[in-house]
Amino acid sequence: MEAQKVDMYLMSNAKYFRSQQLNYIRERLLNLDESKWTMLQSIELKDPTTIIIVSILAGGLGIDRFLIGDTGMGVGKLLTCGGAGIWTIVDWFLIMDATRDKNIEKIQQFLG
C-alpha cells in the first residue's frame, strides 16, 4: 500500500493504539494489498477516551469492560459491584491501555 495512505491512516487513528505499536502497524500496513484498504477503513476501533469516561461514570457495573469486549470481566464487575469499588478504581488506570490492546487485536486479526 502507498506510504502516504498508511501515514494518513496512522495519524488519524494514533490515539487508538499504544505509541510503541505504531511502527509495527505501519510496517504491516505497507505490506498490505491495496484491495483490502476499504475493509481496513471499516474496522470499528474503540476510543480510549470514551471508555475512560464510561468507566468513571458506570465502571462499577462493568459497562466499560462490556464495551471493549471483555464480557467475562464485565460480568465479574457487575456481580461484585466493581469488586466492592476496588476493581473499579483500578480500572480507571488500566482501561485505556486495555482498550488500545483490544484495538491492536482487531488490527492483527485483519492483517492475519
TrEMBL record:
<feature type="transmembrane region" description="Helical">
    <location>
        <begin position="49"/>
        <end position="68"/>
    </location>
</feature>
<keyword id="KW-0472">Membrane</keyword>
<dbReference type="InterPro" id="IPR007829">
    <property type="entry name" value="TM2"/>
</dbReference>
<keyword id="KW-0812">Transmembrane</keyword>
<feature type="transmembrane region" description="Helical">
    <location>
        <begin position="74"/>
        <end position="95"/>
    </location>
</feature>
<protein>
    <submittedName>
        <fullName>TM2 domain-containing protein</fullName>
    </submittedName>
</protein>
<dbReference type="Pfam" id="PF05154">
    <property type="entry name" value="TM2"/>
</dbReference>
<dbReference type="InterPro" id="IPR050932">
    <property type="entry name" value="TM2D1-3-like"/>
</dbReference>
<feature type="domain" description="TM2">
    <location>
        <begin position="46"/>
        <end position="93"/>
    </location>
</feature>
<keyword id="KW-1133">Transmembrane helix</keyword>
